[in-house]
Amino acid sequence: MQQQELIPHLFRTEFGRITAVLCKLFGFDNVSVAEDIASETFLAALNTWPYKGIPENPQAWLYAVAKNKAKNSLSRNQLFKEKVSPAIQAEHPAEDVMEIDLTDRNISDSQLQMLFAVCHPSIPPEAQIGLALRILCGFGIDEIAHAFLSNKETINKRLFRAKEKLRTEHIKLEFPAESELNTRLQNVLTTLYLLFSEGYYSETENEILRKDLCEEAMRLTKMLIDYTLTNKPEVNALFALMCFQASRFAARKDKNGEVMLYDDQDESMWDKQLITIGVTHLGMAAQGSYLSKYHLEASIAYWHTIKADTPEKWENILHLYNHLLSIEYSPVAALNRTYALAKVKGKEAAIIEAEKLNLSNNPFYHTLLGELYKDIDLLKAKGHLINALHLAKTDTDKKTIYAKIEAL
Amino acid sequence: MNEYALIMRHEDGTKVASPEQMQAWMKQTMDWIGGIAAQNKFVSGTGLPFDEAKVVRHSKVVTNGPFGDIKETIGGFIIVRAESADEAAEFAKECPVLQGEGNTVEVRKIAKNDNIH
User: Fold this and answer.
1) Closest residue on chain A to B39 (Cα)
2) Which residues, at least 6 apart from A184, have a Cβ–Cβ distance to it below 8 Å?
3) Does some domain include residue B36?
4) Touching check for A51 and chain B: CB below 8 Å?
5) pLDDT, tens digit, for every residue of A204-228?
6) For chain A, what are the domain ranges?
7) What is the domain count for chain B?
8) Domain containing residue B108
9) pTM as predicted
């Protein structure tokens, strides 16, 4: 095999683990040192394995190398001698200093604490996602830049500023106090939700990268579920939402890589297993009295896992959007609600409500009106679709709208 | 942008509706609120259930239920954002409560905490 495949895969999963554990040991002031040691560890693997063969237990090999590198770093590096070592020595009694704990328990604790630290409210959301991708998911700067459709320099700057913030705000690698846990958890969920969306809706052409983003968001969310204190209904709801969305991943593109809209998708390509997992977690989310937006969005996504158009389906979706919008407004939800309204009450009724939405700068607003007017007023339908075409920002959207104009 | 309370008044709160009717009204009310929320003009709102309602009078006598000599009662209210009372009244026109003859929706501006109102 397949070294080329094995190493990136290991890198992804192990980078975050090693970095989190070392960071916990060294403190946030030295997050870059922790990252460097993790990177050097992989470099060592890359320089050894192709020639000597892949070790029987690659993970154990990596941990052993990482431990050694960390120890060397601790004893050799001048900076460590002066700054880090005393701090560690003060906290850990003599013989403990060299004990780098890479047990499963410490790995998952460190990663969870890292997740809370990275999603600290003092760090801007975009930087939170970047940091999570870098430190927790082991993404390279190139990959992050690609995912954000940005360049290396911008991402580097953004990450640098975020790490500075971690330092200056004295953010610690620890679980928030129980009284604070709930508020901090909301922030973590927002970041994981954005991370998932970044993958699901990203404009990057790189399908593998997009899938990786979604999978990482799901892995981190699952980590919260596996930890008793954060295994809350809304976390399960978010996970269910991700499962339902991700179940359509393969069906969203046709053989030529063109986007397949929901109505045109081959439902046999939907991942039934993921849908089942989603249903289980939606069940677990149905506890307590707090109804989060994730509950509503997961329920909407659940109804979309049933392809057939039934009055029941759209009545439920409309009802859920009504509720969602009264909790938190967003243009996307407003437009989707209007689409559901058209399914329940007919296009005429939906047009009246659509025209009140005051979203005339939004390309999807015009796409929706184009769709609604299609069988009622061809001229208006075309006008709206042309508006949509002018306003569309991405090539994918332009292609989709163009196809709709052609089909009129 | 101002905030207005839309207060839904029932002419006769003692009228009993069938469960089906009530469910239909509930659905209509949620669609009505959803339509306002879709314009990002919904602030908050609540129904006011009649159960356990009490009226306290001048003499500090407490009676059960909002209905005594007066049958008219408030069923709930919502708060909306609107440029003007006229715009708020446009929202009120769509309120399902108005399907009942004699029912009204009162539009009232919410006082701003600006030391003027």
Assistant:
1) A357
2) A116, A119, A120, A121, A176
3) yes
4) no
5) 667 777 888 899 899 999 999 999 9
6) 1-102, 104-212, 232-307
7) 1
8) 15-48+87-112
9) 0.81
